[in-house]
Amino acid sequence: MKLQKILNHLQKLHPKEIDLSLDRILKLCKKLGNPQDKIKAISVVGTNGKQSTINALFSILKESNLKCNVYTSPHIQKINERFIFNNKQLNDDELIELFEEVEKINDNNPLTFFEALSACYFYKAAQYPENINLIEAGLFHRFDATNILKSNLASIVCSISKDHLDWLPKGQQTIEKIIFEKTSALLNSNIIVSKQNSKEITECIKKTTSKNSSEKLFFNENFSYSTGENNFFYYEDKFGGLKLPLPNILGQYQLENISTAIATLRHLNLGIEDKDIKNGVTKIESLARLQEIKSGKLKALVKNNRLLLDGSHNEDGSRVLNEYLQTLDCRKHVIIGMMANKEHEKYISYFKDISSLTTIDIPNQPKAISGKELKDKFKNIANVQFKGSIQEAIKSLALKENDLIIITGSLYLSGEFLNLN
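The structure assignment produced for this chain is given below.
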């Protein structure tokens, strides 16, 4: 396939998968005419909730008839997901044309895969100067390829927690260092800070951004939400309150991300009406974020039992996932596969009162921990077993009426599941 051939070539332009530096992408973007200087962007940084916040922003903006370009990572099923322009994913032919044009200009100079994709995104985005760009930062942000903008509309700081510690120097693998890497290089515009896991993290963000002249909005200080009865929640900021229908996506934490999106859009005064927000929160599209699977080959294996897919893969992701699971009065069966560099024991420690735990291999991922090794790490958990595939794991479950199956631990596993389903 021509697209895959081009992607394979781009992956070989640099010996390292990740090499935190801005020099290479700045050099290429200069050849491309500095397209990053010609766009209007909302930058989204953090550890958890970036994709969900962008999904909420995108849904509301579309309801307002505003055109968006969206750049996110990683993709779940296919790379096209990372490239949305004029509210639509590029098709394979459009991606091939874009990649070939940028690669010709790059002329085989060293470039990491993510830098190549980011340069391609900026190059295409400059063709739509009036569109609003929703840009998800990659690893840490300070030396991330998306951090080459000279200006933006706003920077959103989603929940920050420990993840990707193996990319930090020994002795600096701390939450304070992560906060510094994610927030110290934010642009001077507007900074909107989502709900954090602790007051200490919020205070650390304030300290790290104290010299940034941006106007800053913090959850529970400048905007907030509360839940109500009869399937609504109440959002409030300096512009007043909004009584909103509950979103079409699962999980209490989604209200935090949606509220952050609303705070950002209202603050930017983009002409968005209350009705656009009300309609937008009920039309959010979200892959592998507490996604309920209602049809497909794998869903057929569980018949009438509920099947959830969640790509959470770190401690904080596990915490918010289990806050939701603990609201459900049913037996829960967990199927899990993870990458090798994650904190496996901390991730699983949040799962309480589960009926079974099945570890599996993640196909096509050489950097994943084997299901057997993962089972050994979870040996103190009752009813833990290993199965070689998602299908085997599902078929092995002794399901009763109203039982729930949750597949989790990795976005890569989520992509494999969706492709198989």
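Interim note for the steering committee: The domain at 291-420 is CATH 3.90.190.20 (Protein-Tyrosine Phosphatase; Chain A). The first strand starts at residue 40 and ends at 45.
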